[in-house]
Structures are given as structure tokens and as C-alpha cells.
Amino acid sequence: MNQFTWNEYKELLMEEAMLTDAWDPSENPAVTQLTYESQKVQPGCLFVCKGAAFRQAYLEDALARGAVGYVSEKDYGIPGVPHLLVKDIRKAMPSLAKKFYCAPDEELKIVALTGTKGKTTTAYFIKELLDEALERKGQPESAFLSTVEVYDGKSRQGSSITTPESMELYRHFRNAADSDISLLTMEVSSQALKYDRVLGIPFEIGVFLNISEDHISPVEHPDFEDYFQAKLSLFSRVKTAVINRNADHYERILEAAACAEQVVTFGTELDADVFGYEIRTENGKITFRVRTESFDEKFTLAMHGIFNVENALAAIAVGTVLGFEPAAMKAALERVQVGGRMEEYTSRDGAVHVIVDYAHNGLSFRKIFESSALEYPEAERRVVFGCPGGKAINRRGDMGEAVSESCVKAYLTADDPGPEKVEEICRQIAEHIDGERCSYECIPDRAEAIEKAIAEIRAEGKDSAVLLVLGKGSETAQKIEGKSVPYESDAAVVKRVLGI
Fold first, then answer.
1. pLDDT in tens, 394-418
2. What is the pTM of this model?
3. Cα 261 to chain center, whole Å?
4. Of 75, 88, 97, whose CA–CA distance to 18 is shortest?
5. Shortest CA distance to 434 belongs to which of 403, 465, 413, 456?
6. What is d(CA 207, CA 316) in angstroms, rounded to the nearest whole number?
7. 69 SS3 class
């Protein structure tokens, strides 16, 4: 990979009309590293000062470690230290990263997807389709950037964020391109769109799954319109837009997608380009037919959840755009499972069914309740859930109302409470639960809440009951007061209590 000099980065910022001032080094050093994390700085680094919480101490640490200078929106007034001042550090970051990593995004076909719910499951469906098609051609596995996992050809690791900052994105792109990978699937969050993490990235396909009120808080989006507009901005950089015909606000989504070269729709409406129909359960699995201009085939899902048909249709639409054969897509969907999503566990006597899922907002709650009602029509539903602290405040009311409509009891508990007390979060959720339709109690310890829910179902001797444990999926930590505290994982607790 080429190394560019200080002056070349300066010229880039000038060409893009971002540079407001500069203090150049006496020589023109090569920039050998680009980062905003001072503890990772090595000699030759161009250090980026970003974030509302940035402190001068971070810059001083970076300089002490050998940074050749810094990029910032302000002059920190440190004598003799080279710097490049820019209008908007967030817009400058992707430009700098793209140059540093030699535009690897242009060497890949990138499938990006956004939506309020289903992004990760759909991303796994798409990756499985891509990998099946690539394997049949003898080509390397596709790259993957998701909320749960990252694979870029050189490393496979867990993820802590839906969409990384632009410098991490371009590093993953470069690793993928250098590994002879041709296709990459990535989730794109509303925050990544709003704060320019994906600015300038050309997406081969952009998938819009759905939209509902979520991530509304002082630290995320002030209102639904701000959230919606951030999501819609995905289309400004896509070649082909793939959109859900069943989505709320479909007409607005379709209008925004018109800037793409091609628009493909999917869903269960007759006029969808990728039309799903005859959806049913057969021998414990979900089956459905798909009709497009080129085929009409029956598909089977390995995963539970009728709502996953919609996610599968999105993946099939992507595969259709890329020219994949139906046989390859069918084979992929018949085997794909996603950890922590619609994982089902049943007691030995068959009376207690537990479903573990990441569902974490009103829309996903309603979808999973509808699906469980179809799959277990005679069973009463109970739910264990909580809500993260310090963000997405509107979820508390949305989830409480959804629970009231569908469950006989709710066990309110911890779900990454962060800076807030679990009891206070539970109290706010409970304000939106109709106690006459759905009883509830607050049990701050999540494992204890699951244990009690299962014990009560057993004690009442129900012939059939479904317990939905929602929000954490396969996660093994709770975010509490700025720390990551180990947690057994919902699935592990369920299996332990059920003795399976």
C-alpha cells in the first residue's frame, strides 16, 4: 500500500474545500498511520482530533508517542506542532481514510442495509447467499461488517458497534481487497449516516428494510423525522436500491430511492418485484414461495419467526440483482442460523417453549409476538425484557404498549442500564403497561428474572406456554455505569434452568 506525504493530505483537503488553515512541518514527512485513538499512535502518525468529548490531553499523548501532526477543527495552540484545520472533522475523516487506504471501497461490491429492525438477521441471510454463490465459483468467502461480527479476510472478531468509524471501515475494506474478496455486506446505522461515517462510499446495493420510531433521544435523534431522514440518505450513494414494499412510509422511501440507477422492491404485496406468498409452517420450519420475473420457487428457512420471511425476501432480492441462481439461494437459506436470534428451547416435557431474541423496540416486539401467536396459537405468552439506559427513551413506552397487547405477564429487568438505575427504567416501562391485561414485576437481576419466569410457568402447570426473552440475544455482558460487566447470556441461563 502506498504511503502519502503530509502535503498530499493537505492538497486533498484543499481540493475538497475542507481546509481552513494549516501549519506545515519543516519537511514533508510520509504519513505511516492514521488514527483518532491516542493510545494506538506510532511514529509517523497523522492524528485526528474528533468527538465532543475530545480533550487536549489526548493530542498531547499522541504527540508524545510520535505523531507528526494533527487534523482538527480548532488550533490547540501548541507551539511548533504541525496541523491541518478543517471545517468539519467528520466529513474530513472518510476522505483522509479513503486516501490513506488507497480507495479499497472501489475494489469491492458493497451491499449496505439499514432499517429499524432485522438488519443483522438480514445481513447474515445476505452473507450466506453470497458465500454459497462464491463457493460454487471457487471464490473466497465474502466480507462482513455487522452488529455481532466482523470478517474482513484477515481477521474474524466480535463487534461492539453496528457501523464503525470511517477509519476502521476503510481498514476492513483494504484487508478484504488485499484478500481477493469481491463482495462485502455491511449494516449501516442511522448514526453512521447522520455523522458521515459512510460518506463517499459507493454502495453497489442499498437495502431499506423498514422504519418506525426508534433511537429518539437527546444523544441520538431529536425526533422521528431526523431519524427517518438519516435512514433515507443511504440512497444518495447506492447504485441499486432494494426496498420493502410492506414498509411503513413506503411512498416516501420509494421517492427517496428514485435517485438510484435501479429500484427493486420485495415483500408480500402483489406488485413487489420479489413477491413472497404461500407463507406457512411445515414440520416446524417456515416455507414460502417467491415469484420474480425469472423464477417462481419454494424456499425454506432454518430459522423460526414468520417475520424472517421478510428478511429472507430482502436477501433474495439482493441475490436476484447480483444474478444468483435460485438453487444457490435456496440452499443458503435452508441452513442459515443466527446466534441470539429466534433461538428456541423447549423443556423435556414439551410444556415450556422459550425463545431468545435480540428484539429491542416496539416494532420488533410486535413482529415477534405475532409470529409466536402463529407458531404457538394455544400458548399464553410471557416476556422478560428491559431497555438500555441513557438512549432511545421512546422505546420504553413502545415496548410497554406492545407487551400489554400480547402477553399475560412481563418480567422487567436489566438490559444495558448504563448510567441509569434498572428500577427507574422498569418504572418508566411499567407506566405504559396495562396492568389489567398484563401483570408485571421488576426483577433487576436478569438471570433471576428468567429463572423466576420459567419457575412460575412450571408452578402453574400450563399445558403450553411461550416465554420470550428479548433484547440481549447471545451477548455475554451488561453495560453498567460505564463498565462492561460479565453476564451468563440469556441462552445459557435458559438452557441451565430447563436442564437441556
1. 889 999 999 999 999 999 999 999 9
2. 0.82
3. 25
4. 88
5. 403
6. 11
7. strand
